[in-house]
Design brief:
This protein is α+β, with helices and mostly antiparallel strands. It has 30 helices and 16 strands. The longest helix is centred in the middle third of the chain and has 20 residues. The two termini are 45 Å apart. The mean pLDDT is 87.
């Protein structure tokens, strides 16, 4: 099977730790649909379940380093990794630990590169002495940013769930930030421990301790066991464990082996009873520890992560342009994330300026007016091309004067036609030639003229005075052609940058669409399993057949914040397939055709919607409207106007109820349902109603 197909199928497996393929099939309706519609996928899943759990290859831990007291060749069998050449242990990490060797994990974080890049930018432009290690850990502006939920791009806390947690906990000191990383894990979230912690932090629930001895050990975490360190301390203080024995207890709890847990439970309880702790209380403490230990964080780990969280939040709060430029540079190769962060820059009122052959550097740069797009973020523009463009621009000739000057000065072997095409599509020549269509049409002439001039230079056609010999050849010019349509310009920008620069195809429809939709791609948190209404452009669709031969499809719908995966089963596809095809192909040639989709939402990245209904905007107006409300004053309800109103409503028959909301001074509002006055709530109807009464009196409920 093609890698792309397998990759798409693997992404249908729910992102649950330790999930089996059988559980994945049970939980993912889309995965089941793929199996039903495609025999090859069904065979793949059947085979995969037979192989599941078997050792499949010699794998290398991404960050594990083994350390021993003697040369490792004397303690464990080794082999040479054929790709990296590194010496690798032939035993896995569990066997390594049984031999008494120590394994350290050295993790690399791209966030550290982003911080270093932002730090460099700040030193170059604002504060030559700035060091991230020296920043105040109690900066009020930083904690305000976190507490307000402005966490996009902030390490560890940018997901919707983590953002909600930070807002609820409202941290205002570094010590309050440390537990957050440890709390947001499947175990604490599922056990109710996180809600308990939030309520205690906000004074909703009283802080209580199961035993007085636990207060000293868990006071900093409001009586809740949050860190692995606390498990070790409790076992040590309450039951007389050595710290080494306590660590073995923690591991046993993590593995949840019944026989070992029973031994440890008896050991813990008896040790606690010897220290004058009641048996039932000791058993309750052991139960609490056992629930926690499988998913606990070491406090040192949470502290290190919290420091990076704080540093990124500090940079964003105090140096937003420099930090976002560094973040965009880090993600320049990931167009999905790039688009997301550029959208966030707009929310922060930081303008991301289009690429420019005379202004852009390799990376994103802070300039007057915002952040300039880096050339490395443009599709098809590689390192060699960037080096050539920047080198020619920084030479004696200075900035490029026009496309012909550009073509004559760059290295044609490194900056090929494909590179120049991408630069035209994204608007990198706009400052030299505002009309992209004419530059596109004149590319052949420009590149040929540039190549000819370079050949002349190489041959050495120079005068005795060192100047070039000027042939009597007319200077080439760009052709006069029709400008690109808005749609074509935007599609090219999206193709090479991953986002729209000079507008958005949905912008013209946004006000109308907001009436219908209740979820966007970046605001699905907490809505999984519910029916939702979404809207946007269908950008791709793949049709297939179920085992029974019925036609269904998988599609992608994009709104202004991101994308949804659509699963369109056979029944809705039979009803709406032609509408989706028409919107996708844009057969009318009138520009993009937004659709409104209703269906059940499934969590994921991107989120999925199991489609029930699909409408174009006009049809959505009719089908999703539940009520037309006319807000009138008593003075406006005259006999003539009521007669005109009746006639007007009859001209727009439909199924939507009409309500008259009568406002009488000094009295409560009166609501009157107009019998037999069902209407089709079109924009024409609303305009006519407003015109009849000389003001905006119409409100439609969806």
């Amino acid at each position: 099977m093609p890698y792309g197909d397998v990759d798409r199928i693997s992404k249908l497996v729910p992102d649950t730790l330790g999930i089996s393929l059988g559980e994945a099939i049970e939980q993912s309706s889309e995965l089941r649909a793929r199996m039903e519609s495609d025999g090859q996928v069904a065979k793949l899943m059947e085979t995969a379940q037979k192989l599941e759990g078997l050792t499949r290859h010699a794998s290398t831990h991404a960050a594990g380093v083994v350390i021993g007291t003697q040369p490792l060749i004397e303690m464990v069998p080794l082999y040479r990794d054929p790709r990296s050449g590194a010496a690798i242990t032939q035993y896995d990490m569990r066997c390594i630990e049984k031999l008494g060797l120590i394994k350290f994990d050295f993790l690399g974080l791209t966030t550290l590169t982003t911080i270093a890049d932002a730090e460099r930018r700040i030193r170059e432009t604002q504060n030559a002495d700035f060091r991230i290690e020296d920043v105040d850990l109690e900066d009020a502006v930083t904690y305000d940013l976190l507490s307000e939920g402005n966490t996009e791009g902030v390490f560890q806390v940018e997901s919707q769930g983590m953002t909600d947690l930070v807002v609820k906990l409202h941290p205002h000191s570094f010590k309050e930030l440390i537990p957050i990383v440890a709390l947001y894990r499947p175990g604490p979230l599922g056990s109710g421990m996180v809600d308990d912690f939030i309520n205690r932090k906000n004074g909703v629930t009283k802080v209580e301790y199961l035993l007085p001895e636990l207060e000293e050990l868990t006071a900093e975490t409001l009586g809740v066991i949050v860190y692995q360190d606390q498990v070790l301390q409790i076992a040590n203080r309450l039951a007389g464990y050595s710290l080494g024995e306590a660590d073995l207890l923690r591991r046993a709890m993590g593995k949840k082996k019944a026989a070992e847990m029973e031994k440890q439970r008896e050991r813990f309880v008896s040790g606690a009873v010897e220290r004058n702790i009641q048996r039932h209380a000791a058993e309750e403490v052991f139960k609490l520890m056992a629930e926690f230990a499988g998913y606990g964080f070491a406090k040192s780990h949470s502290t290190a992560y919290a420091l990076i969280t704080y540093q990124t939040a500090y940079l964003k709060a105090n140096y937003p342009n420099e930090y976002m430029a560094a973040l965009l540079t880090t993600e320049s190769g990931n167009h999905d994330k790039l688009s997301r962060y550029i959208g966030h820059c707009k929310q922060l009122q930081i303008e991301v300026l289009a690429p420019d052959v005379n202004q852009s550097a390799r990376d994103f740069t802070v300039v007057e007016g915002g952040i300039r797009f880096g050339l490395a973020g443009v599709k098809n523009v590689g390192e060699g091309a960037i080096e050539s463009i920047l080198a020619a621009r920084s030479g004696d000739s200075g900035p490029y004067r026009e496309i012909f000057d550009f073509a004559a000065r760059i290295d044609g072997r490194r900056v090929n036609r494909r590179v120049v095409e991408s630069l035209v599509k994204c608007g990198a020549f706009d400052s030299l030639h505002p009309d992209r269509a004419s530059v596109w049409a004149g590319l052949d002439v420009a590149l040929e003229a540039g190549a000819a001039e370079q050949r002349d230079r190489e041959i050495g056609q120079e005068s005795l005075f060192g100047g070039m010999v000027e042939a009597d050849v007319p200077k080439p010019t760009l052709p006069d052609v029709a400008a690109w349509s808005d749609r074509q310009r935007l599609e090219f920008e999206k193709e090479v940058l991953g986002f729209y620069v000079t507008g958005h195809p949905l912008a013209a429809y946004l006000q109308k669409m907001r009436r219908f939709i209740d979820v966007t791609a970046d605001s699905t948190e907490g809505r999984a399993g519910r029916e939702v209404r979404i809207g946007g452009l269908v950008t791709s669709m793949r049709e297939t057949r179920t085992r029974r031969g019925a036609q269904m499809a998988f599609a992608t719908l994009e709104d202004m914040t991101g994308a949804f995966d659509l699963v369109i089963f056979s029944e809705p596809f039979a009803q709406y397939g032609s509408l989706i095809r028409a919107a996708l192909s844009n057969e009318s040639g009138e520009g993009p055709k937004p659709l409104v989709v209703t269906g059940n939402l499934e969590a994921g990245e991107p989120p999925k919607v199991l489609v029930r209904h699909v409408y174009d905007l006009e049809r959505a107006e009719e089908k999703l409207a539940t009520q037309v409300r006319l807000q009138l004053t008593a003075k406006e309800v005259t006999h003539d106007r009521m007669q005109a109103l009746r006639a007007l409503l009859k001209r727009h028959p439909g199924a939507c109820e009409v309500i008259l909301q009568l406002l009488i001074p000094g009295e409560t509002e009166t609501w009157i349902a107009l019998p037999g006055a069902g209407v089709n709530p079109t924009e024409d109807l609303r305009n006519e109603l407003n015109s009849l009464f000389g003001r905006a009196v119409t409100e439609v409920e969806y």
